[in-house]
Design brief:
The chain contains four helices and no strands. With 139 residues, the protein is mainly alpha-helical. The protein is elongated, with a radius of gyration of 18 Å.
Length: 139
């Protein structure tokens, strides 16, 4: 349970970081006129938390060593991407009235998700290598 909570908090933290940076970018692009009405900010923050949970919690699948790695990746990224897409449409991150823009934003989201996944994979590979090196040094 502690591990699941850690994964959830990490996922939320990463999502909130991206949300904050994106908000800053839109504020700069809008020359300080980036406004949200009708509780849109609150809805977006709640959506951001859901996206963080959607990508963070399913990482528990990487503990299942009996599943092939491509299946674990598909489960993790599939759940996260589905949750992101549903949240993004509901809070207005993806415009429902423009098919081209919607596809572009979804593609950018998927690319960002896989970049983050790849960076974590590199980190954990390096960590495993260091642990293996220490074990070999002890022998």
């Amino acid at each position: 349970m502690k591990d699941l909570l850690k994964r959830a908090v990490l996922g939320i933290g990463i999502a909130m970081s991206f949300f904050s940076i994106t908000g800053i970018v839109f504020d700069i692009i809008g020359s300080g006129n980036f406004t949200l009405d009708n509780y849109r900010f609150t809805k977006m923050v709640i959506g951001c938390i859901l996206v963080g949970l959607g990508f963070g919690v399913p990482t528990i699948v990487y503990k299942a060593e009996n599943l092939p790695m491509p299946i674990r990746i598909l489960i993790h990224m599939g759940i996260g991407s589905i949750i992101y897409t549903a949240v993004a449409f509901s809070v207005g991150w993806i415009p429902a009235n423009s098919f081209g823009n919607s596809v572009l934003i979804i593609a950018i989201q998927l690319a960002a998700a896989f970049v983050i996944w790849y960076l974590f994979m590199l980190h954990y590979r390096k960590e495993a290598s260091q642990i293996n090196d220490r074990i070999q040094a002890i022998k």
